[in-house]
Specification:
about 500 residues, eleven-stranded mixed β-sheet, single chain, globular, alpha+beta, ABC transporter substrate-binding protein
Length: about 500
């Protein structure tokens, strides 16, 4: 199989025309290259690959945190090793017994609308995360029995059974103001988010741009720029053209070809191996992959090394595991591509399989979907493609409405294996594609350990069971994320968990 020949054959002219029209209309948020704030600092113009599906962190996928995290803050901050630190809104935590955690909240913090960002607000946010029907993190907090705020700076979380990673989980829970969130609801909050962060909402043009401005009352170190205007262009060629023309200050998510072209043109490009991995999820609850033999055939048909080499020219990292959450880690056992065996397992039945993927959401995702489909066709499957926008795909997955294969990213916003176990493996998870009482039992055993190190052998067993034995997941690769900056732009801080700190960015 020659992956480079599997480029999309769907018409792209209309999509490209729409992108060009959108970019020209927005003028990249209407920000003139010399635009400055009242204090003389510039507004940073950031170009994304796709419009955020929602700016509500309770229900939104973490791919949109690049925008909302300018205004909202996680309950617990992390350090350069991705470990929780005491520098954020929550300043300390203790595990007073196996099922009780006590957290201390930084005093005298307010939301930008004046509400108090106290322990009651923290308890409310954790409760929303646990109880909201559409919560992205709902499955992670199902073991939480109670959340109380006995005073303005103390939150007590009790779990039904021991759970070692509660503090880790709070590093990806973003604080929302209780009264405002209740008044506006999810959609209303997403239309004008309010938080405690270094920036505040400055407005949006629907479908065109989103702007934030520096928060003059921020409790921490204030931003060095006046604000950020986010625009988006689905086509990588447009993102390259706009950074080359200096129409934007930062262009995110450049595929390898565009990154190389930018470098050749003298544009500064930063490449970072991220913790984000692209995974093919096989739904074992519906045909055709309710047949274990066909799941094995699909897993053996897909050659992740060929995808990395043929589509990314090596600018991605083939990854054969699911629960190896940090860059550089690989599992003890994995599945090796074996097209001949895959074809033998399929036989002459020609089972139909749909491949669902979020169009324009990830670098070269169209080509990746075509490559996966081409591999399955060579094994004897009859393949159809279902590209949809990211928000729609997430809603369908949560609603268990996606048969066949879903290709999307797993981002361990919490750098512990349980983030993927609770998100993907357990019966009551986001994907729910591989229900198995034994997996649920092992997942619970892992959480009851004293910490990640003690739980590591159980996670290795879970990885082997779900990926190597049951073939419910086909890990493909870790993304190497490229972004380009215009001349004179500095101070962008991009993290391996796909986070961006703009506060030190200048131009």
């Amino acid at each position: 199989m020659i992956l480079k020949s599997l480029r999309s054959r769907r018409p792209l002219a209309l999509a490209a025309a729409l992108v060009i029209a959108s970019v020209s209309l927005t003028g990249c948020g209407g920000s003139d290259p010399e635009e400055t704030g009242s204090n003389g600092s510039a507004t940073i113009r950031a170009l994304l690959a796709a419009q955020p599906a929602t700016l509500d962190p309770i229900v939104g996928a973490r791919s949109a945190q690049i925008v909302w995290a300018t205004m909202l803050e996680p309950l617990i901050a992390i350090d350069s090793n991705l470990a929780p630190t005491d520098t954020g809104l929550v300043t300390s935590w203790t595990r007073t017994d196996p099922t009780t955690w006590t957290f201390k909240v930084r005093p005298d913090i307010s939301f930008s609308n004046g509400e108090k960002a106290d322990a009651a607000a923290v308890a409310n946010t954790i409760t929303l995360t646990r109880d909201s029907a559409a919560s992205q993190l709902k499955s992670y907090f199902g073991n939480v029995a109670s959340i109380e705020a006995p005073d303005a700076t103390t939150v007590v979380v009790k779990t039904k059974t021991p759970q070692y990673n509660i503090a880790d989980l709070l590093t990806t829970v973003y604080l929302v103001p209780p009264k405002y969130y209740q008044e506006k609801g999810s959609e209303g909050f997403a239309a004008a988010p309010v938080g405690t962060g270094p920036y505040v909402w400055a407005g949006a043009n629907a479908g065109r741009d989103i702007s934030v401005k520096k928060n003059p009352d921020y409790w921490g170190t204030e931003a060095t720029n006046a604000g950020i205007t986010f625009t988006w262009a689905n086509e990588a060629a447009q993102r390259l053209a706009l950074i080359q023309s200096k129409s934007v200050d930062i262009s995110f998510d450049l595929p390898p070809a565009q990154a190389s072209a930018a470098k050749a043109a003298g544009v500064e490009v930063v490449s970072t191996e991220t913790a984000m991995k692209i995974i093919a999820f096989l739904d074992s609850t519906k045909a055709p992959f309710d047949d274990p033999k066909l799941r094995e055939a699909a897993a053996l048909a897909i050659d992740r090394d060929a995808i990395v080499k043929g589509i990314f020219d090596g600018q991605a990292v083939a990854d054969a595991g699911l629960l190896n959450v940090k860059p550089g880690q690989q599992p003890a056992q994995s599945v090796k591509a074996d097209p001949a065996r895959a074809k033998e397992l399929v036989g002459g039945a020609a089972p139909a399989v749909q491949i669902h993927y979020p169009a324009a959401q990830y670098t070269n995702i169209e080509e990746v979907a075509q490559a996966v489909g081409g591999s399955l066709e060579q094994a004897g499957f009859k393949v159809t493609y279902q590209p949809v926008d990211y928000g729609t795909l997430v809603k369908r997955i949560i609603g268990r409405q996606v048969p066949g294969i879903s290709i999307f990213a797993g981002v361990p916003n919490v750098a512990v294996p349980d983030y993927f176990v609770s998100g993907f493996l357990k019966t009551k998870s986001i994907t729910g594609n591989c229900p198995d009482p034994k997996i649920d039992e092992l997942a619970q055993q892992a959480l009851e350990q004293d910490g990640t190190e003690q739980a590591a052998p159980i996670y290795e067993q879970l990885n082997t069971m779900s990926v190597v034995e049951k073939h419910c997941y086909v890990p493909l690769y870790r993304q190497v994320f490229n972004y380009a900056t215009a001349p004179g732009v500095s101070g962008v801080v991009f993290g391996p968990l796909n986070t961006v700190d703009f506060t030190k960015t200048t131009r």
